[in-house]
C-alpha cells in the first residue's frame, strides 16, 4: 500500500538536538541540528 505524502511528513519523528537530545522547534529555512541553548543563542 502506498502512503499519502501528507501522512508521510506528518508521521516523521520530531527533530532532536545532536548535543543534548532536546526537541528542536523546526523552521522551514533551517537545516541545523543543534538547539539554540547548545548554540548559546539569546533573544535581543
Explain what the structure shows.
This protein is an all-alpha fold and 44 residues long. Helix content is 23%, strand content 0%. It has two helices and no strands. The longest helix is centred in the N-terminal third of the chain and has 6 residues, at 5-10. The N and C termini lie far apart (49 Å). The model has no long low-confidence stretch (mean pLDDT 84). This is YhfH family protein.
Task: Provide a quick synopsis of the model.
This is YhfH family protein. Pfam families: YhfH. With 44 residues, the protein is mainly α.
Percent strand? under 5%
Envelope shape: elongated
Uncertain spans: none
Termini distance?
A: 49 Å
The chain-level structural class is mainly alpha
The number of distinct helices, counting runs of at least 4 residues, comes to 2
How is the main sheet built? none
Number of strands: 0
Mean pLDDT: 84
Order of helices and strands: HH
Nearest-angstrom radius of gyration?
A: 14 Å
Residues in helix, %: 10-25%
For this entry, give a set of tags.
mainly alpha, 44 residues, elongated, YhfH family protein, YhfH-like
Give the secondary structure arrangement, pairings included:
Elements: H1 5-10, H2 36-39
Amino acid at each position: 500500500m502506498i502512503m499519502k505524502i501528507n501522512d508521510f511528513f506528518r508521521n516523521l519523528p520530531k527533530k532532536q538536538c545532536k548535543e543534548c537530545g532536546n526537541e528542536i522547534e523546526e523552521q522551514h529555512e533551517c537545516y541545523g541540528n543543534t538547539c539554540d541553548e547548545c548554540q548559546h543563542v539569546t533573544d535581543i
